[in-house]
Amino acid sequence: MKFQGFPDRAFHFYAGLEEDNTREYWHGHKDVYDTCVRTPMEALAEALEKRFGPVKVWRPQRDTRFSNDKSPYKTHQGITTESAGSVGYYAQLSAEGMRLGAGFHGGTEQVGRYREAVDHERYGPDLERIVRKLERDGWSLVGERLRTRPRGCPADHPRLELMRYRSLGAERLHPPAELGGPRALDLVRDGWSRLAPLVDWLEAHVSEEGRR
Q1: Is the pLDDT of residue 210 over 80?
Q2: What is the number of domains present in the chain?
Q3: Is residue 1 part of a domain?
Q4: Selection from 87, 78, 35 nearest residue 59 by Cα
Q5: So which domain of life are we looking at (predicted)?
Q6: Residue 81: which of 109, 114, 52 has the closest Cα?
Q7: Which range marks the domain in which residue 105 is found?
């Protein structure tokens, strides 16, 4: 199927799910999810694979085993690339539109490699230039970070704000009005392309594969 954008019913579906996250609502509107969310998202993923490699379309059910929130369904539909380690691109469709982004999240070893690279006299300034350009272009930095500073990191470290991150990404939100036609493919493809320098840096310095 050729990607033709997301109809308004996709966003109305998620607005309703936010109000009534129950199996009754889901099964009563599953035809809307299948035709207006899942099918176009699968077509979008297929169209992106030529440039970005395999793209995974995530299942809509939440894993509630270890969560106090037992809501059965995610209030967004996500896709991610299968990049090196825990580094890659993502997109999430929800009632508010589509959130595009890229970054990394991982365990202690990856956080250690990330901070080692940020601390490096050459690699650290490279990342700083990348994220500052993204911020000037309207992207927001996101991720888990410490309130203070990592152990052993001096208070006057030139890249202290970046050192605080335990996971790091950049993302921006596109409203439903921009997603209704086939040009939404160009929007996603262009957005991910602009994030490529960040992904390349993270793959080179954070992922296990990149450090070999």
Answers
A1: no
A2: 1
A3: no
A4: 78
A5: Bacteria
A6: 52
A7: 8-211
